[in-house]
């Protein structure tokens, strides 16, 4: 008697579906330096990392098949963040021997759909920053500007962009950064040279008579990344017209660790980034304003609001502020502007 044996079909497990999804995510994370669309996956890296760790732990607890594969995927998603998180240049930190001027800064994207204007103004006033840089600061947020104007002696605006700077310290010069680009652009240059972020600058005078330039900037979304690339290139070129050792750049960069987009900002800007993996978006204000539901727990997972400062600035503190009703959280920093002899 002849027997015929049939090969049993391979069993498909429910766990295979999320594993397949994380295989695709892992490929995208590793293709980020070469493909702008894939870099969007790195922008939300904490989401994938949390999901990969949860899936890895679950597969081991349930003794599910392919748990080694899941752990390998989690490791591969982790690796691209090691360098940007742990080995990026951070600038000097304050110590008791540093002599200079103590200046506090804050940056905040007010968000055009923000409805909690009173809350926003109260939080920003309570942060008590010497210099306040704002983005998405237009007609819709006028009541916030009016409240802030009662607490700041100087307000710098740009009629070409919804960005502004409030300062308690004297302002000696100011203007739209785009105007500098237009003045230095020659005829016949390619169209990409017209790509420029919303940006305003001000020269601030310290009590000892020294000055420094501060810029409030808002870069476009990283999709399409090519547009953000051109904005970054043009901005970095114009920013070099100011003294780099004393320059401070604050704003919404729409680029988060460990994206290739943020690494390009770190490469092209001479001042050093002082914000390190500090999530600022999306804050509870996004859900409260758009869905009408009050969210009690912090919901941020992407740090896209940053502070860059030149070599004469020593970092004291950098922290993320509370919910303001915006979809962003404000960022606050206290820094020391070194005396000239201490900086050399």
Automatic annotation (TrEMBL):
Q: Where is the Endonuclease/exonuclease/phosphatase domain?
A: 106-328
* Top-level lineage group: Bacteria
Q: Where are the transmembrane segments?
A: 12-32, 44-62, 69-88
Entry keywords, A to Z = Endonuclease, Hydrolase, Membrane, Nuclease, Transmembrane, Transmembrane helix
Q: What SUPFAM superfamilies does the entry give? A: DNase I-like
Q: Which GO terms describe its molecular function?
A: endonuclease activity
State the protein's name: Endonuclease/exonuclease/phosphatase family protein
Q: Which organism is it from?
A: Hyphobacterium lacteum
Q: What is the lineage of its organism?
A: Bacteria, Pseudomonadati, Pseudomonadota, Alphaproteobacteria, Maricaulales
């Amino acid at each position: 008697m002849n027997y015929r044996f049939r090969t049993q079909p391979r069993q498909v497990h429910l766990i295979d579906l999320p594993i397949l999804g994380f295989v695709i995510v892992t490929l995208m994370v590793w293709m980020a330096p070469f493909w702008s669309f894939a870099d969007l996956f790195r922008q939300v890296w904490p989401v994938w990392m949390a999901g990969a760790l949860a899936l890895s732990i679950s597969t081991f607890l349930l003794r599910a098949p392919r748990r080694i594969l899941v752990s390998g995927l989690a490791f591969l998603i982790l690796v691209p963040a090691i360098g940007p998180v742990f080995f990026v240049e951070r600038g000097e930190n304050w110590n008791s021997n540093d002599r200079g001027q103590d200046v506090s800064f804050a940056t905040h994207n007010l968000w055009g759909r923000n409805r909690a204007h009173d809350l926003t103004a109260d939080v920003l006033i309570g942060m008590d920053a010497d210099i306040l840089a704002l983005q998405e600061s237009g007609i819709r947020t006028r009541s916030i500007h009016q409240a802030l104007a009662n607490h700041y002696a100087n307000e710098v605006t740009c009629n070409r962009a919804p960005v502004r700077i409030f300062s308690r310290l004297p302002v000696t010069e100011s203007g739209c950064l785009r105007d500098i680009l237009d003045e230095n652009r020659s005829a016949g240059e390619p169209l990409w040279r017209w790509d420029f972020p919303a940006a305003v600058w001000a020269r601030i005078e310290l009590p000892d008579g020294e000055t420094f330039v501060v810029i409030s900037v808002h870069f476009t979304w990283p999709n399409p990344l090519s547009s953000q690339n051109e904005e970054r290139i043009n901005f970095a070129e114009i920013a070099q017209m100011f003294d780099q050792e004393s320059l401070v750049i604050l704003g919404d960069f729409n680029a988060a660790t460990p994206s290739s987009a943020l690494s390009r900002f770190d490469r092209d800007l001479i001042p050093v980034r002082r914000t390190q993996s500090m999530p600022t978006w999306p804050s509870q204000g996004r859900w409260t304003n758009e869905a009408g539901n009050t969210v009690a727990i912090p919901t941020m997972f992407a740090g896209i609001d940053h502070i860059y400062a030149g070599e004469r600035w020593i970092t004291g503190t950098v922290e993320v502020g509370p919910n303001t009703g915006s979809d962003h959280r404000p960022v606050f920093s206290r820094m020391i502007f070194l005396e000239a002899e201490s900086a050399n």
